[in-house]
Every structure is written in structure tokens, then in C-alpha cells.
Amino acid sequence: MTNSPIIWREAMRHTSLLSAIPDDLLVQLAERATDRQFVRGDFVCRDGEYSNSLYLIIAGEVDIIKDLRDGELILARLGAGQPFGEMGLIDDSPRSASVRVASDSLQVLELSRDDVVNLLQTHPGVLFEMVKLLNQRLRQMDIDHAQIMQAKIDELAESNQRLQKSYDDTLLALSQALDLRDQSSGGHLQRVTAYSLLIAEQLNLPPEGVESLRLGSLLHDIGKIGVSDAILHKNGKLTEDEWGLMRKHPAWGRSIIEGVDFLRRALGVIEAHHEWWDGRGYPYGLRGTAIPLEARIFAVADVFDALTVERPYKAAWSPDAAREQILSEAGTHFDPQVVAAFRAVYERLVEVMRRAEELEPHHALSPAGMRPLTAAPPQFPKPQLPGKMLDGGRRVGV
Ligand SMILES: [Fe+2]
Fold it and tell me: What pTM was computed for the model?
């Protein structure tokens, strides 16, 4: 590019900002202008600095940049014939964006503040053009911003979903590991979670309650990690001392989970899923609505599942028999309102159970997706009805 005022005058004449200015004045301006050259990445003006110049781009492109905490945002890209720096001239305040060279090289004409102010005084039409240009640019920036913000929101939502999925996968793996150790409840977690959520839907549980219930269902027996294999897998009747240890699993569950921030919502179910509506449950003997609603819902789902699957010490009850048992315990073991919701969704609940059976016929001894632990299912005694205590004094749903 030739550094000639004549060439510059031509360049200035072709900018919409200066096109209305008489030739002789343009020549004067061009003679007083400073020719400045930059290379890619150079800053022409920096955020936070006062601006006393108006720049006209002769060749090349610049990015208008806003520095944000999590990176920079390109507000606009300007090319040949476009002015920048005018905001500083108008309000005399530090600029709130940087201007950086985006192309391999940039040539601008820098007009001083005094020259521009003089121009505005003698040719008010320039001011009008300047306001018009600013207005157009701000409108375009609004559109660009909206698009950029939407893209960022989408990106954030996607990354949240990925994070949530990795939490869920971790939880599921952890829970299945616990199930595998228990050896008595393959697929139990998926079923009790599905049953619980069906009942919750019937009760119009708010979304935060549903999330607590979902997490709690997956982790309800995590405290059993503190119960020894000798007790957990004992075939005969548990002694009083052994029962005492088994009954500590809700409290042990609390101490495992309470330090993990994103799992704290599961505490209600973990700690209170063996409490009874009439206060005869454990570990605290809570009564009625003192028991978190999520735990009251889960208790019904857990017992329904425990009754309807085979276990080494009992045969599977029919769903109808399990339903009758649960209905008979409304007001004693279970919250009557939750039992009513269970009754209302019973058919759908059985559908879920049947689908789980189709996927995994011997689910009682084979956690979902895992190798069966025994070559063939053992023979089980016929169910005894009614009865609160099943084989060996072991209460269902522990
Ligand atoms: Fe339990």
C-alpha cells in the first residue's frame, strides 16, 4: 500500500462515515492522519484504556474482543472501510473492548481526537452518519450475541448431561457391585428405582424429591458395605447381636454418603428406608411424616420387590399376594397415602416387573448384565401367606 494522502483520501471517501465530506477537507484530514501498520495478533486498542483516536481500516481485518473470566468473546469483526474507536471519542471513557488484528496485516488511518471533533463541529452530517453506523453495529452485535450465548448454553447443557451421565454410570457401577456382594437381588436396583418413581409420579412428587428418590433407590443399602460377609450371607437365623449389626446399615450408609456433596440428597432414603409409619422401624423409630416421604415411598417399592423375587431362603410371591401384603400393612409399616398410590399404579408396576423378567429370567441371582453366580437356580419352598417374618427370622427388604 502506498502511503500517499491521495490514496488515503480515496479510501476515506469510500467509507460511509466520511463519504459526505468535501474533497478539500478530506485531503486536509488525510494529510493529518497517521498511517499505522500492524500484524496478526497485535492489539490496536486495549480494554480499559482511554481512546483518543478514530481509526479507519484501509486494509485487513480486526476483531473486537471482550475478555471474560472463562475466555474471550469476539463481539464483531470489521474490515476495510470501517471505522472503530469512536465510542472513546464520544464519551471520553475507557473502552470496554479490545481491538486485535485478525488478518496477516492491517493498515489503518488514525485520526486524532482534535481533528475528529473539529470535523464534527464543521460537518454535523458526520455525526449523524456516526450514530447511524453505531446503531447498525449494535443491532448486529445483539444478533451475534444472542447466537453466541445460545451456542454457549447448548454447549453447557451438553457438558452437564455428560457429567450427569458419568455420575449415574459411577453410581450404577457402585450399586451393582454392592448388589453382587449381596448375591440376592440381581436387577433389584433397577426395579426398585422404577417402582419408586411410578409411585412418586402418582403422588406428584416435585422434581427435587424425584431426584432424591432416584439417588436414594440406587444407594439405599450402601451401608451394608460395613456388614461382614458372614452375617450378610448367613443361611441360618441371625443372632440378636448379628441383627444389631445389620440394623446399623442405614446409619453406616449416612456416614459413607454425607461427605459427598452431590449424593447428599440420597440421605433421606438411605437413613430411613427401614423406618415404619407406626414408629416400630429402625434405626431411630421415627413415626409418620417425621420419616422423609422419599423413604416412605421407597419402603413400599423395596418390600414389593423383596416379596416378588426368589431368594435363597424363600420362593417368589405372586405380585397379587405381595400387593395384598402391602395393603394389609398400610398404617403400620407403610404410609397409607403411599400405599394408595402404590395401589393406583399397581398394574404398571407389574408391567415393569414382567419386562425385567423377560430381560433376565433368573434375575434373583444374577445382577443385570453380569454372569449368573450359580449354574442353576436352587429349589425354593412355597411362599407362606400371610407372614411378616420370612425364613430364618429375616425381615424382607433389609
Ligand atoms: Fe436396607
Answer: 0.56
- Cα of 43 vs its chain's centroid, Å: 38
List the domain range (segments joined by +) for residue 363.
186-369
Band (pLDDT 50/70/90 cuts) for residue 322 is very high
Tell me the three cell numbers of residue 388: 411378616
Please give all residues whose CB falls under 5 A of ion ligand 1, grouped by chain where several chains appear: 221
Q: For position 290, which CATH number holds? A: 1.10.3210.10
Task: Give 1's pLDDT tier (boundaries 50, 70, 90).
Answer: very low
141 and 257 in a single domain? The answer is no
- Quick check: is 170 in a domain? no
193 CA distance to ligand 1 middle (Å) = 14
Instruction: Tell me how far the alpha carbon of residue 349 lies from the centroid of ligand 1, in angstroms.
Output: 21
Question: Distance (Å, rounded) from C-alpha 286 to C-alpha 276?
Answer: 7
Q: Are residues 150 and 228 in the same domain?
A: no
Confidence of residue 333 (pLDDT cuts 50, 70, 90): very high
365 touches 309 (CB < 8 A): no
pLDDT at 92: 67
Could you tell me the distance, in angstroms and rounded to a whole number, from the CA of residue 294 to the centre of ligand 1?
14
Same domain? 116 vs 262:
no
What is the whole-number distance in angstroms between the Cα of residue 274 and the centre of ligand 1? Answer: 6
Instruction: Say how many Å lie between the CA of residue 360 and the centre of ligand 1.
Output: 23
pLDDT for 12 beyond 70:
yes
